[in-house]
Specification:
- The protein is α+β, with helices and mostly antiparallel strands.
- It folds into 2 domains: 79 residues, no CATH class; 64 residues, no CATH class.
- It is 43% helix and 17% strand.
- The strands form 2 sheets. The protein has a two-stranded antiparallel sheet. A two-stranded antiparallel sheet has the order 3-4.
- The two termini are 47 Å apart.
- The mean pLDDT is 80.
């Protein structure tokens, strides 16, 4: 990015010198062309599977890599304004929506089919839980810097159908219509 964007933009200045164009306009156009290289690291924040976290098998990994490659191709096409032909303005918007849905599938899919079932922690001891699925317990607390949380993960196939939170180090107290975590191990 430093080679094509101002104020450094050595490649942009060299290209402008060869073509006889304005170096600043060439640098801005080069930045627009290389925008995908600035977006790709941000995609890792929204799709942890690109870092191979949570990949269950090789086919899952291949699907993640292929959909991400297609997503970056579609994003590049949208920012360039070309796919096979010049894109119209509404096609660019459609391409941007498609690229977001491919690069961060959870963002789109969670709107229609959430990954987790959210339940109140007071109901967990009375619920029938499926031992073939992972359980994540997120306990939040307010602080001066915003909400802080602790995430407890109970792996699949590691618990019986009947269990209590005390088995996993969480002791709850009911106090003034609130649930307070009394003890964490």
């Amino acid at each position: 990015m430093a080679d094509v964007t101002p104020p450094v933009g050595l490649a942009s200045y060299a290209a402008a010198g060869i073509s006889g164009g304005d170096p600043l306009r060439t640098g801005v156009q080069a930045f627009w062309y290389s925008l995908r290289t600035g977006i790709l690291p941000i995609v890792f924040l929204f799709n942890h599977e690109l870092l191979l976290m949570g990949i269950e098998n090789i086919w899952h990994g291949l699907i993640v890599i292929i959909t991400s490659l297609i997503g970056i191709l579609v994003f590049t096409s949208a920012t360039q304004g070309w796919f096979f032909n010049k894109l119209k303005w509404y096609e660019i918007i459609i391409f941007l929506v498609i690229s977001i849905s491919l690069l961060s599938p959870d963002f789109v899919l969670n709107k229609f089919y959430p990954k987790y079932n959210y339940e109140e922690i007071t109901k967990i001891n009375s619920m029938k839980l499926d031992s073939t699925k992972e359980i994540q317990i997120k306990i939040t607390r307010p602080s001066l810097y915003g909400e802080r949380y602790k995430l407890f993960v109970i792996s699949k196939n590691t618990f019986e159908d009947k269990f209590t939170l005390e088995d996993y180090g969480v002791t709850l107290l009911k106090q003034d219509d609130k649930v307070v975590v009394d003890n964490l191990k």
